[in-house]
Structures are given as structure tokens and as C-alpha cells.
Design goal:
Layout (H helix, E strand, L loop, with lengths): L10 H13 L2 H20 L2 H19 L1 H23 L1 H12 L3 H14 L4 H18 L4 H10 L2 H4 L6 H8 L7 H8 L4 H16 L6 H6 L20 H21 L13 H6 L3 H23 L4 H34 L2 H11 L8 H16 L2 H15 L4 H20 L4 H10 L3 H29 L4 H29 L1
Helix pairs in contact: 1-2, 2-3, 2-17, 3-17, 4-7, 4-16, 4-17, 5-7, 5-14, 6-7, 6-12, 7-8, 7-22, 8-22, 8-23, 10-11, 11-21, 12-23, 12-24, 14-16, 17-22, 18-19, 18-20, 19-20, 19-21, 19-23, 20-21, 21-23, 23-24
Length: 505
């Protein structure tokens, strides 16, 4: 019996995710999934024990670490860790905390500031996670926001923001998967109003903050810090650092990463035969290369800036490199194992199996297809831990199945929304791992506290896609208006219900 291209191809990822949630230990859980994937591959290929070892270690672990794109992301992580260490040692983070104390007066204000900063950094989700975490953690610590809540705020303004921003690495990825002649960025923009999961996630963030309550396991961590909101009041010490010592590195990072992305897309190569404009270069950019180059440039600027300001010596600045690397080791290990697990499921043709499911459901279920595609994208992204891999397999299918019209736009948006939803929920998602690293939060705690919130929005989005599919015959604009009214009403009703329930407890 062949295991590739069947339900068995998803089993390694399912087991890894289940073990992580049950044992609350992510390293061994991911490795167990990798081992099972290697066993399945060896059975399917009849390659024996040597084939198993080769596939797990040479093709899997070594293959993940030798991939140029993956190495670029790891270097980006190390450089960002170094930048955070530099900002802390120079006193920039502390100075920002002092400034924030004068301007941000409450726990609500600290959370809103975190959300707004996350909305502003829409270029890339990795960049978003680590930058927002490093900048806002001192402030959220002061006002008693738990690491788990900070990780949720970061994660919910990373991928959900990037997937609705036309100028982002995610928009570039989606545009790259549109292969039938249509302008990919144009199709991406048309789908934004129907990306219910991403938009409703952002709406929910503000509603939760202003309604001032938590539910699920998040409430446990938040209540534990209610009496600690002023813990940092007495911890102020003398420092040469100023707010500008945080602002200059962050602005340098944003500007240079943006320039790095369009550079990797060929924007500055005007002599090339296929010269691309700004939008075209962004669509053809490499997030790995662009972010690596941009962050390295920001690191050089930051070191020289601190030397000129005399807030750090050269020896102390260089000493931040190993410290930054050490801080990112947990995220690097989890990312490496997650990439390896993804390669195991890919070698078992998991994506082709899911693609077959969606193609088989197309006949006779047209009005329910947006909701069906949303669920399938959720499952595939959750099991593999990658939104982009889900885009790669489902977007071409949606384009082929629906050559034009409103159904194509809604189904494309359902594919993107479902991919982000699965990515948001999955403990093996790189974005989820980055959010944990940015908030310095235990990874399994982040996943378990975020899951009830993500599932709430996912359930509301599923119903909203059902309504969108049923009302499309009234026209795409009318369908959109009806769907949004119903979606917002359902989300508000769900949160009111959970608030009353938590108040009774």
C-alpha cells in the first residue's frame, strides 16, 4: 500500500502537533514527527533503514540548513537578536520605557500601542514579529501585560497584516503563484475585502482590548500579572541612553529592509533586459535575501551610531553578537525542526492529497466552495506550518477552476484567509515561532493561549464565507456588504457571550 498522496502523508505533522500540545515540549514533539515521516517515506520507497537515515538527516535536517533561503532567515534572526541586545545595552529600550511611561498611561494604552506598531510594520511577518517584540516588551512588562498576551498581539499583527498589505513579502508571494496571465498584485488587491479571517482578527484585537477581558487559558496568565503592573517602577537606573538610541536602529531596519527587498527583486538593476518597477520588483523579491541584507546594513549603522554617541564601546558592541545569537537559539532550533518536518510531509505528497480533495468537491457545491476552500487551506497550513506552501498548491487550482468573476475573487481570498488561519494556529509555523521569540514567551504557552482566540475568528470566518458564497448571485458588492454585517455581528456576539461567561466564573 502506498502512503504517499494519502491521508497518511499528514500523519507526521498531526502527531507532532498533538504531542506538542499534550506534552508542552516542542523539540521532542517535532523530532518525533520527523522520525515518523522518515519511516513512512522509507516504507513507501522500500529503501530500508539506510533510506530512512538518509531521508531524515541528509535530505531533511541537512537539506533544511543548506537551503539558501532558510540560511538567510537564520542570519536575519541572529542579526535581529544582536540589534535587540545592542539597544538594551545602549539604554535605548530603557529610555523608550521611560518615555512610554509619560505618554502611555495604562494597560489598554500599552496594548493599543503594540497593535498600532504591528499595523505599521507590514513589510514582512518575520520582521514584524521580532521588531514589535523588542520595542514593546519593556512597555507591556511595565503595565502587567503577560508574555503570552504580547505574543498573541504580535502574532495577530504579523501574517494577518501582511496578507492584506499590497506592499509586503506575502503579496509578492501570492502574486508569484498567479500563473495564468492576470496581474497578481491586482488580483491580490481585489481579494483584500473578502479576507475575512485576517480582517476580523484585527477587529477582534481592538475589541478584546477595549472590552478588557480574556477567556480560555489566556486569562490564567493575565490574572497572574494583575498585581504586578507597577513592578518596574522602582527599577529605574541611570543610563546614557535616549529614545533616539531605539528610534534610529528601528527606522534603519525598516528602511533598509524595504530597500533590500526591492534590491533582491532587481529594482536597482536598470541595465537588465527585464527591468522591473517598484511594484514588479517587490513581487519578484526574495524575503530571505532582502531582510538579511537590510538587517545587516541596519546593524552596521547602529554600531557606528552608538560609537559616535559614546553610549557603547566597540568591544561591548561586538560582544552583543554572540549574546544575540544565544538569545535566538531556541527559535533557530524550532525553525530548523519545523522546516525538516515540512520536507517530510512534502516528500509524502501531502499537498497533492489535499489538492485532490478540493478538486473533487468542486462539482455540485459551488455556493459552498469559499467555505470549503477556507477549511481545506486551514487544515493544510496547520498541518504543514506554512502559508506560502498552501498558496502554491491552492491558488493555481482556484484560478483554473474559476476563470473570472466574483467567485474567483472570493475563493482566492478564502484560500489566503484559510492559509493564514492555519499558520496562526499551528505550533510548527515559523511565524508563530517568531512571535514567541519576539515576546520571549514559552512557545507552547503561546500556542495554547492563542488557539481559543484564533478558533473563534476561524468559526466566524467560516460562517461568513458560507454567507458570501450563498449571496454572490446578488453581486459581489452586495454579497460583501451582507457578509461583513453578518461577520461583525457574529464576532461581537461571540465576544459578549465569552465576557459574560468569564464574569460568572
Amino acid at each position: 500500500m502506498s502512503l504517499a498522496g494519502t491521508f497518511w502523508s499528514l500523519v507526521p505533522a498531526i502527531i507532532a502537533i498533538a504531542l506538542a500540545l499534550i506534552t508542552k515540549e516542542v523539540y521532542s514533539s517535532l523530532f518525533a514527527g520527523i522520525i515518523i515521516g522518515g519511516v513512512f517515506y522509507a516504507i513507501d520507497a522500500a529503501s530500508g533503514f539506510t533510506g530512512f537515515l538518509t531521508h531524515v538527516f541528509s535530505d531533511g535536517l541537512v537539506g533544511s540548513l543548506s537551503d539558501g533561503g532558510n540560511v538567510g532567515i537564520l542570519l536575519f534572526l541572529v542579526i535581529l537578536g544582536t540589534l535587540v541586545c545592542l539597544m538594551n545595552k545602549a539604554g535605548g529600550s530603557q529610555a523608550f520605557g521611560v518615555w512610554a511611561k509619560k505618554h502611555i498611561k495604562s494597560k489598554v494604552g500599552a496594548q493599543i500601542a503594540t497593535i498600532l506598531l504591528g499595523l505599521l510594520i507590514f513589510v514582512d511577518d518575520y520582521f514584524n514579529c521580532l521588531t514589535v517584540g523588542s520595542v514593546m516588551k519593556p512597555v507591556t512588562d511595565k503595565y502587567g501585560v503577560s508574555k503570552e498576551k504580547l505574543a498573541y498581539l504580535i502574532d495577530s499583527t504579523a501574517a494577518p497584516v501582511c496578507i492584506i498589505a499590497p506592499i509586503s513579502s506575502w503579496a509578492a508571494a501570492v502574486a508569484g503563484f498567479v500563473t495564468e496571465g492576470e496581474n497578481g498584485i491586482s488580483l491580490f488587491c481585489k481579494a483584500i475585502p473578502f479576507n475575512f479571517y485576517a480582517l476580523l482578527t484585527l477587529v477582534m484585537l481592538f475589541m478584546l482590548v477595549f472590552m478588557r477581558f480574556e477567556y480560555g487559558t489566556m486569562s490564567k496568565y493575565e490574572k497572574a500579572l494583575e498585581m504586578m503592573s507597577n513592578a518596574d517602577e522602582e527599577a529605574e537606573t541611570e543610563s546614557k541612553g535616549k529614545v533616539i538610541d531605539l528610534i534610529i536602529p528601528v527606522i534603519s531596519l525598516i528602511v533598509l529592509c524595504l530597500l533590500g527587498l526591492i534590491y533582491s527583486g532587481g529594482f536597482f538593476d536598470k541595465k537588465a533586459e527585464t527591468y522591473l518597477d517598484f511594484i514588479g520588483a517587490f513581487a519578484d523579491s526574495s524575503a530571505s535575501t532582502g531582510l538579511m541584507l537590510g538587517s545587516f546594513g541596519a546593524l552596521i549603522i547602529t554600531i557606528f551610531f552608538y560609537l559616535i554617541r559614546r553610549v557603547l564601546s566597540f568591544k561591548d558592541a561586538i560582544g552583543c553578537v554572540p549574546e544575540g545569537f544565544e538569545a535566538m537559539v531556541p527559535a533557530i532550533i524550532i525553525l530548523t525542526l519545523a522546516w525538516t518536518l515540512n520536507s517530510m510531509t512534502a516528500s509524502l505528497n501531502a499537498k497533492q492529497y489535499v489538492a485532490g480533495l478540493i478538486e473533487g468537491s468542486a462539482a455540485g457545491l459551488k455556493m459552498f466552495l469559499p467555505a470549503i476552500i477556507f477549511v481545506i487551506a486551514c487544515v493544510l497550513s496547520f498541518a504543514t506550518g506554512t502559508s506560502w506552501g498552501t498558496f502554491a498548491i491552492l491558488i493555481p487550482i482556484c484560478i483554473a477552476a474559476f476563470p473570472e468573476g466574483g467567485m474567483r475573487i472570493v475563493c482566492i481570498s478564502a484560500c489566503m484567509a484559510g492559509s493564514v488561519c492555519g499558520d496562526h494556529c499551528s505550533p510548527i509555523s515559523d511565524t508563530t515561532i517568531m512571535a514567541s521569540a519576539g515576546a520571549q514567551c514559552n512557545h507552547v504557552n503561546h500556542v495554547s493561549t492563542q488557539l481559543p482566540y484564533a478558533i473563534t475568528v476561524a468559526a466566524v470566518s467560516f460562517v461568513t464565507y458560507l454567507i458570501a458564497g450563498i449571496t454572490l448571485n446578488l453581486g459581489i458588492v452586495v454579497s460583501g456588504i451582507i457578509s461583513w454585517i453578518c461577520g461583525l455581528a457574529l464576532l461581537a456576539g461571540a465576544l459578549i457571550f465569552f465576557k459574560k461567561r468569564s464574569a460568572k466564573k
